[in-house]
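hi support,

uploading two proteins for the ticket. first:
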Amino acid sequence: MTDPTISHYHQHATHYQAQYDSVAAQDVHATWAPLLKSLTAGLALDIGAGSARDALWLTQQGWQVTAVEPAQNLRQLGQIKTGSKVAWSDAQLPTLEGLKRPEQGYDLILLSAVWMHLKPEQRPAAFHRLCDYLSAKGMLIITLRFGPSDPQRPMYSVSTEELETLAQQRALSTQDLSEALTNDCLQRHDVHWKTLCLRPKHGHSV
C-alpha cells in the first residue's frame, strides 16, 4: 500500500473496524469460499487483514493464520480481537519485508480489497513476492475493486488481464470466479468486485 493510504487507515481505524465487521466474512467471500473444501486447512496468509474479520473466519475452519496489516491502530484493534488465535505482522506490499516465509510456503493467501491500492508500477514486484510465499499447491485469492477512487486512500485501475499476464510469468492458472461483477456488500451502488483464484499449474513450481 501507499503511505497516504496506510496513514488514513491508521487514523480512522475504529471507523474501518466497524465497517468491515458490519458484514460477515462468509458473505463477502461467497464467490470463493466453496473452494476451501478442496484444500486441507494449513497455513494461511491474510494480507491487508484490517479488522481481522477474515482471519478469524479462517481460523474457525482450522487454518493457522498470519495476518498482515501495516496500519498500526487497525492492526492493534485486530490483535485485541484475535488474541493468540492469529499471528500478526506489520509488513506491507510490494516487498513484505519483515514477514518470514514458512519453509513450505502458505497454502492459502488472501488479498481482499488491497490490489487497487497498489500503484501499477508496484504490482509486478508485489505479485512475484506473493508467488514466492505461496506453497507448491497453494491458492492465491485476489479481489478486484471496480469503482471510483477515494482521495484519502488512493485507488488505481485494476483488470483481470493484468493479473492474467502476471500469472503467466509464474506459471499460475487464473480462474475468474465471478461470471459478472458482484455487488458490494456495503451497499455502495457504484462499487463492484471480481474475485480471481490463482494456482500453480500442475507440474510447475511457483
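and the second one:
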Amino acid sequence: MPEGDTVWRACKRLNQALAGQGLVRTDFRVPSLATTNLSGRTMLEVVARGKHILMRLSGGLTLHSHFRMDGSWHLYRPGERWHGGPDHQIRVVLETAPWTAVGYRLPVLDLVATDDEDSVVGHLGPDLLSPSFDRALAIANLESDPERTVSEALLDQRNLAGIGNFYRTEVCFLLGLHPWRPISAVDVPAAVDLSRKLLKANVRRGAQVSTGVDRPGQRTWVFERAGKPCHRCGTTILTASLGEPTRERVTYWCPACQPES
C-alpha cells in the first residue's frame, strides 16, 4: 500500500497540473457517481491528508480518493496514449484543456462537500507530513493504549497518519524494537520523531530509503529482506504476519538487533 510520502508526491503532481484549470469533461465509472458531471467546475487544489487524496473544486465540492493497495492517478497530455492499465480498470476521468487525469483501480472514490471533509478524513490522527503536525497529540494517541504492540499502534491511522508497513518496519529496526513490544515499553516520542524524519527525507525521492544508501538492495534495513543477513550484524532477518487475519501485514525484524526484551 502506498505510504504518506508516495501520496504526497502524487498530490503535488496532480496539483501542479490541475490547480486553477477548468474541467471540460468528467467521466465517472463507479455506480455511486455514474451520473455525476463536474464539467465547468475549477480544480482549486489537490492536497494529501495522510494516505487520502482531496481534490477541492469550485462550488464547495471535494473529490476524495484513496489508493489502498494498487490504485493510482495518471496524467496525460491531449492525444497521449493512456498506459495505466486496461480500460475496465479506469474509475474516473477528469479532463482539462492541458491535462487529463485518469484514476485507475481506485477502491475509494466519493464526492463530499468541502466543508464536510471530516466525514472522510476526520478520523485520522495528525498528518506526519503536515507543516502543522501536532506532535503532542500523536504521542498522546499512541500512549492511550499502552498494551498495544508498537507495530499495530504505528500502523493505526487514527493515531498518526501517513506511516505504513515500510516505515513501521524500519522505525522498529532503527530503534531496536521487537515488532510485538508493547507501547508501554517504547520511547514513543522517539518513534514519532523518527517516523516523521524518514517520511520527510523521502518525500522528494523516487525511492523509499531508510539506510541512507539509495542503491538497489541497500535501501532498507529489514523490510522485504526475509532470509537475508542483517546489514548491521549479519543475523538472518525473520518474517511473520502481524494483526488480525483479515488485515494481516507482513513484518520483518532482526532477532539480534531487535530482541524480545
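thanks. also noticed: Residues 4-18 form the longest helix (15 residues).
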